[in-house]
Amino acid sequence: MKTPITIQVRHFTGCPFAVSAEDGQRLHDAIAPTLKEGKPVVLSLAGIETVIAAFLGAAIGRLHGEMASEDVDALLAIRCLDGGQMESLRRVVANSKRYYENPAAFDKAWAEMAEGDATLEKAVET
């Protein structure tokens, strides 16, 4: 296997908090081309105290819609996660895989839910 490229997540967040989708998107944009070339990447969360799903979804979850999940799983490694961060990552990856297996069904369900919310709001206003 090729030597992985190691990326310090803190370089993208500028602080110990990986919480913004914008920072996650910048990280995604940095790693996606390398992964798509079949080169392994290691993300180090050393120095990161807090990670939330919005960051992880933007950085990692989207990869499952752009590449085969098997390739993402084989080429991307995450290091220096504590237990809670690992659980968040597992949930984001599982949800992303489910979404990208059938995005049209998920989008339809969200649209129907939003339509129902709008109908409920109108009923409450009257």
Please write out the topology.
Blueprint: E1 5-8, H1 10-13, E2 17-18, H2 21-36, E3 41-44, E4 50-51, H3 53-61, H4 63-66, H5 69-75, E5 76-79, H6 83-101, H7 103-125
Parallel strand pairs: 1-3, 2-4, 3-5
Task: Describe the structure in your own words.
This protein is of the alpha/beta class and 126 residues long. It has one domain. It has helices spanning 10-13, 21-36, 53-61, 63-66, 69-75, 83-101, 103-125, and strands at residues 5-8, 17-18, 41-44, 50-51, 76-79. Helix 2 runs parallel beside helix 3 and helix 3 (53-61) packs across helix 6. It is globular and about 55 Å long. It starts with a strand and ends with a helix.
Please give a quick description of this structure.
With 126 residues, the chain is α/β, with parallel strands linked by helices.
Rg? 17 Å
For the biggest sheet, the summary is: 3 strands, parallel
Average pLDDT figure: 89
**Count of strand segments:** 5
Structural class: alpha/beta
User: Gap between N and C termini, in Å?
Assistant: 64 Å
What are the segments in which pLDDT stays under 50 over at least 5 consecutive residues? none
Index terms:
globular; single chain; 126 residues; two-stranded parallel ribbon; alpha/beta
